[in-house]
């Protein structure tokens, strides 16, 4: 279990035990981190993850509160759970990504203009050193969309975009809960971009496969642990 997962479980247990009830405000960040034996960074990541599934509500300038936990509020979170556990749907989409995107990336290495390939580097650089997970996932979607379009095959590009969009929430959750996921994603994006710039379709295909397989492997492990 990662440090962030441990932090998530600690906060969830406080709610289950009744120590935190719907509408309650969480203790101050430094106090709660010290009490739970966590770093403030791990606590922030846990809060972000729990706010994503509507367990917590972060109010800027006010504090972090437990939501009402009403079923209607949690429906979006339930659809996230369904993605993970009902017929392993998200995993099937990732398997399809692993087949389609490396092929599109290899084609882009010979068909994409150097100007557009340079635009990929600028897209990566636009994130800065410490992007949020939400910024990273949005950037990731655009990165792969441009490469698919650069393949020169409109049918393949449409297929990639459709399949890729269905894995967005899984990629967001991975970025929040898996340590070094942000750094790994950026490094792999740069490796793909450099292979495209060098006109190396086989290398570009290999890096795209490694990149997508990393998310798929994490999902598989998550399903096993669940």
Automatic annotation (TrEMBL):
InterPro entries: GntR_C, TF_FadR/GntR_C, Tscrpt_reg_HTH_GntR, WH-like_DNA-bd_sf, WH_DNA-bd_sf
GO MF term set: DNA binding; DNA-binding transcription factor activity
Residue ranges occupied by any HTH gntR-type domain in the UniProt entry: 1-69
Superkingdom as given in the UniProt entry: Bacteria
Keywords assigned: DNA-binding, Transcription, Transcription regulation
SUPFAM superfamilies: GntR ligand-binding domain-like, Winged helix' DNA-binding domain
PANTHER family: TRANSCRIPTIONAL REGULATOR, GNTR FAMILY, UXU OPERON TRANSCRIPTIONAL REGULATOR
Identification of the protein by name: GntR family transcriptional regulator
């Amino acid at each position: 279990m990662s440090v962030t997962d441990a932090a998530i479980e600690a906060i969830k247990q406080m709610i289950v035990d009744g120590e935190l009830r719907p509408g309650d405000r969480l203790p101050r960040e430094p106090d709660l981190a010290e009490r739970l034996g966590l770093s403030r960074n791990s606590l922030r990541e846990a809060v972000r993850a729990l706010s994503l599934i509507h367990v917590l509500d972060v109010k800027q300038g006010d504090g972090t509160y437990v939501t009402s936990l009403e079923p209607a509020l949690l429906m979006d979170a339930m659809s996230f759970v369904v993605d993970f556990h009902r017929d392993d749907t998200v995993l099937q989409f990732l398997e399809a990504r692993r087949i389609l995107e490396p092929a599109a990336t290899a084609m882009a290495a010979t068909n994409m203009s150097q100007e557009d390939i340079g635009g990929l580097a600028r897209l990566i650089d636009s994130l800065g050193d410490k992007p949020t997970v939400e910024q990273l996932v949005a950037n990731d979607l655009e990165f792969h969309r441009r490469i698919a379009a650069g393949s020169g095959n409109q049918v393949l590009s449409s297929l990639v975009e459709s399949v890729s969009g269905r894995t967005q929430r899984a990629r967001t959750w991975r970025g929040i809960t898996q340590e070094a996921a942000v750094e790994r994603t950026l490094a792999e994006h740069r490796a793909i971009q450099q292979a495209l710039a060098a006109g190396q379709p086989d290398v570009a295909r290999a890096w795209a496969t490694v990149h997508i397989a990393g998310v798929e492997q994490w999902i598989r492990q998550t399903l096993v642990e669940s």
